[in-house]
Amino acid sequence: MTQEDRRNSPVAADVLVIDDEEDIRELIELSLLRMGLACDSAGSVAEARALLDARRYRLCLTDMRLPDGDGLELVEFIQTRHPGLPVAVITAFGSIETAIRALKLGAFDFLTKPVELKGLRELVANALRSREDAPADSGGRQLLGCSTVLAQLRQQIERLARNQAPVFIHGESGTGKEVIARLIHSLGPRAKGPFVPVNCGAISPELMESEFFGHKKGSFTGAATDKQGLFQAASGGTLFLDEVAELPLAMQVKLLRAIQERAVRPVGAHGEEAVDVRILSASHRDLAQLVADGRFRQDLFFRINVITLRVPPLRERPEDIPVLAAHILARLAEREGVAPRRLSAAALASLRQHPFPGNVRELENMLERACALCEGDEIGLADIELHPTEGLVRPLPRHDSEAVEDAAADSDDERIRVLRTLDETRWNRSAAARRLGMTLRQLRYRLHKWGME
Ligand SMILES: Nc1ncnc2c1ncn2[C@@H]1O[C@H](COP(=O)(O)OP(=O)(O)OP(=O)(O)O)[C@@H](O)[C@H]1O
């Protein structure tokens, strides 16, 4: 079959093998054929890219040295254009550094030359098995990035996924805390159970108990039917307490009890119901400091914070920006049904200098805006509109007294900042609050004060 025939063939092969040495290609293809797998092969980076864009594969195996480039380029290409496709590299004996670079870029494994058939078969079987076992819901998002800290974070996540300890994920807004929580859930033994995220800052204090533990019909005005709580909904799976620092103290006591007793009592019910949930939580705030200030209960802090995962802000890992940007641009292009746009070298360089107070979410918003503005297929410096003030915006104080809240809410600058962000997020209040570095409740408070809600 010629490359042209293959491109036009809708039937997917299982594995794409990329090597410029024909006898190695044949050897690999033959062993895979014996495993009942159909192969396509390519002898160069360009040929491989064309096949990857034209057909669907379950696995890709690439040699490192190719006549028009190297295997690392292909690993990067696959992470951005075909995320989710497992790729392994074949490296020359003794070049372990290259293998490590490939793993950091997202390859799942490597083989060394001369290729041993037993090792090859094991690697292929593993790749295909882990794909089949992969749970449907990891939120559809991967934790992308090639920085050393992110590679370490991925390793920690894999380890933590296997046990049941409560994990507190600490990082600024938009750094990927929810992506991480979903990964811990989806890589662990509870993957087939539900993942229930809850934004603790967005539930009104009066309804909190009923939201978490459920209620019985008639237990209060408006309780027209029995209602299941978040704990019951997450039973057998994971309950993710996002913005956990926003929980009122009274609710913290009840939550602690539910976690300790592994049981909840719905509002209006007489007895308790056993629940089996793993608790993950997250916040951009320093919980230990809140404990010291008497704003967060120490006993709950110890319960939920058995292990802390720190997610570094994007400005501490600018090397992740190219991979993230390419991935975001590919996703936007797929949504629009067009070819992905590229970032010019100058645009990329200036992104790497930007402090990104809103982290990956800010990068996503910025690129979405840039795609809307940009006319060609390359996004230039002029399209990315880096507002110098964006980098200077500090998160507002969150636990300060009403007086401080009022002063912040009253300033014109603050009003302009809030309104501009609301416009940018098309009045999606949750998204705007996150970008502004405040809770939904704080945003609502401001809008209410300004007579806008
Ligand atoms: N490493 C990453 N790889 C891919 N996407 C990422 C990564 N980090 C963040 N994102 C994306 O950035 C956006 C924000 O991520 P997420 O909601 O997980 O952040 P967060 O820290 O939970 O934010 P918040 O504290 O405001 O709730 C999402 O669209 C997410 O998919």
TrEMBL record:
Alphabetical list of Gene3D superfamilies matching this protein: 1.10.8.60, 3.40.50.2300, Homeodomain-like, P-loop containing nucleotide triphosphate hydrolases
Domain Response regulatory: 14-128
Residue ranges constituting the Sigma-54 factor interaction domain according to the UniProt record: 143-372
The keyword tRNA-binding appears for this protein: no
UniProt cross-references to InterPro entries, sorted A to Z: AAA+_ATPase, AAA_lid_NorR, CheY-like_superfamily, Homeodomain-like_sf, HTH_Fis, P-loop_NTPase, Sig_transdc_resp-reg_receiver, Sigma_54_int
GO MF assignments: ATP binding; sequence-specific DNA binding
One Pfam family cited in the UniProt record for this chain: Response_reg
Highest taxon of the lineage: Bacteria
Record-listed 4-aspartylphosphate modification sites: D63
GO biological process: one example: regulation of DNA-templated transcription
Keyword Coiled coil belongs to the record: no
UniProt entry keywords in alphabetical sequence: ATP-binding, DNA-binding, Nucleotide-binding, Phosphoprotein, Transcription, Transcription regulation
Entries under PANTHER family matching the protein: RESPONSE REGULATOR PROTEIN PILR (PTHR32071:SF100), TRANSCRIPTIONAL REGULATORY PROTEIN (PTHR32071)
Protein name as catalogued: Sigma-54-dependent Fis family transcriptional regulator
Protein species of origin: Pseudothauera lacus
